Amino acid sequence: MIFSRMHTRSFNLLVIGLLMSLASVEVIAQEGQNKPPVSYPSPTEPVNCEGVTAYVETAMVMAQEEGENSYLIVIARLGDGERSRKLNLDRIKTVRGFMKGRRGKSIVAEGERTKGYGRLELYVGGKQAFVLPLRRNGNVDFWSCMFP
Fold this sequence. Notes:
Glutaredoxin; 2 domains
């Protein structure tokens, strides 16, 4: 009789333990699914040298932290009142020059025209990280704040 009670009690504790561990696994799995996507603030007005440098460098670090298979993708877009495709190509060339020789994988490309300011769109791991408005008909400026 004593053996039977101990055996039943052990069995009950084992069942309770298993149920509790299954419940905690389900909660952990649900927490991972319910995480909202991370959003980062982007400026609404055209960025200056310090701003564009800080955002691009931040995106480069974010891409490195994503892992070796992650890319930083930069899309340059002309805005309202910007007529010259050469302007966008100059922006691309400037961004490539800034990123050249730095660690990490990157792609810089030209996108379709957009409403409002021309801009650089920065994507990390396939997700948009930042949108940087640019001064109308102005090139991307990395160098003037570094070498005044």
